[in-house]
Task: inverse folding
């Protein structure tokens, strides 16, 4: 970066992390994306982020325009949406159970789900909280009929936050905050939509445990529990629940209230190490890629989600097929390659596993009976 952008959270100077610009990226809806992205860490708050430049903003516009096209299409893209539906319902139920166990929910209230998608969270929440009135918010009306058919949903609001005329007791942002270029101001604008003492539930990927998240081109903030907590405090919220991986694997789940009742001094932790984490991820992803490049092809790739899409795009013509355990995916194609079940995958081919080492090891043991040449990524080396 010749002209350094400032941190989009605290305004301090950004330090670019080397080795990222040549990485193939992916979009959050699992499409291969070009290289040339930038990854940086803030010298002040230590948040790992994509610098929000004009260029990044216009790329993101391009990515979201593609989302719309996919939503209207059918075929494999639709299957990938169906797959997401199942996953997001399971995730939503876990989050709702955690909210219930927290003991802070009243019997009745008004909820706003920002970026409600196909309504998985609204459905899960409504099952447990029949006396709440729920509103979904989306940028387009594609799922309007579906959302408004969910018990407890008053309406799907299509359009910007500013056009909402009512206040809420709970605002939910699931996999949304990491896309937002100006998180502090955005969170402040949410506080204006909350009744006094209102709650904010946020779910984002956890950079500490999900190395592949840095490859997602339209995620501009890669939160850790420390930087998420810091961001919420800076926006005037009081965080009273923050779970890393214990509600949903590899994700942060946080519950905060507005206004803050107690004075939260941001503990200036010296253990904050956003840079180290991101550098370890970059080195490990590079290793994973080299492992694939050195294998004699054609190679198979385990999975069809973000990490598999990235590896396939980065390896190019070396790839022969995908292997997936999800029966909704097997028999179809992804990026033009066939998707096999572990049982039907070509024997004696190298099968790359773009998964964390511990997870890859467990999967390889579980599927040992199929005699595939599982290639386990080596463990990340500590910088
Ligand atoms: Zn910062």
Result:
């Amino acid at each position: 970066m010749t002209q350094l952008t400032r941190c989009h959270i605290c305004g301090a100077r950004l330090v670019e992390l080397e080795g990222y610009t040549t990485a193939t990226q992916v979009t959050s809806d699992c499409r291969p994306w070009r290289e040339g992205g930038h990854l940086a860490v803030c010298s002040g708050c230590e948040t790992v982020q994509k610098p929000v430049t004009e260029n990044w903003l216009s790329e993101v516009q391009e990515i979201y325009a593609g989302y719309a096209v996919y939503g209207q299409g059918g075929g494999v893209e639709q299957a990938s949406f169906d797959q997401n539906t199942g996953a997001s319902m399971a995730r939503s139920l876990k989050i709702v159970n955690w909210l219930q166990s927290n003991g802070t929910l009243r019997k009745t209230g008004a909820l706003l789900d920002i970026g409600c998608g196909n309504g998985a969270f609204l459905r899960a929440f409504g099952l447990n909280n029949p006396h709440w009135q729920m509103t979904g918010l989306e940028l387009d009306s594609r799922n309007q009929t579906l959302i408004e058919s969910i018990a407890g949903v008053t309406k799907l609001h299509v359009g910007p936050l500013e056009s909402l005329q009512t206040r809420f007791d709970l605002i939910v942002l699931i996999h949304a905050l990491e896309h937002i270029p100006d998180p502090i101001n955005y969170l402040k604008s949410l506080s204006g939509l909350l009744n006094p003492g209102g709650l904010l539930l946020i779910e984002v990927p956890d950079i500490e445990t999900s190395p592949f998240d840095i490859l997602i081109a339209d995620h501009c903030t890669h939160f850790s529990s420390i930087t998420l907590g810091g961001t919420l405090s800076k926006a005037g919220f009081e965080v009273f629940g923050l779970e890393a991986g214990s509600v949903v694997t590899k994700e942060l789940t946080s519950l905060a209230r507005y206004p803050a009742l107690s004075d939260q001094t941001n503990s200036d932790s010296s253990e904050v190490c956003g840079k180290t984490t991101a550098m370890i991820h970059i080195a490990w992803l590079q290793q994973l890629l080299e492992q694939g490049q050195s294998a004699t092809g054609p190679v198979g790739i385990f999975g069809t989600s973000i990490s598999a899409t990235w590896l396939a795009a980065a390896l190019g013509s070396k790839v022969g097929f995908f292997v997936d355990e999800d029966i909704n995916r097997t028999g179809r194609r992804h990026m033009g390659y066939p998707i096999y079940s572990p049982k039907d995958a070509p024997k004696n081919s190298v099968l790359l596993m773009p998964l964390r080492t511990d997870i890859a090891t467990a999967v390889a043991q579980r599927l040992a009976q199929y005699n595939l040449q599982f290639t386990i990524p080596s463990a990340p080396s500590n910088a």
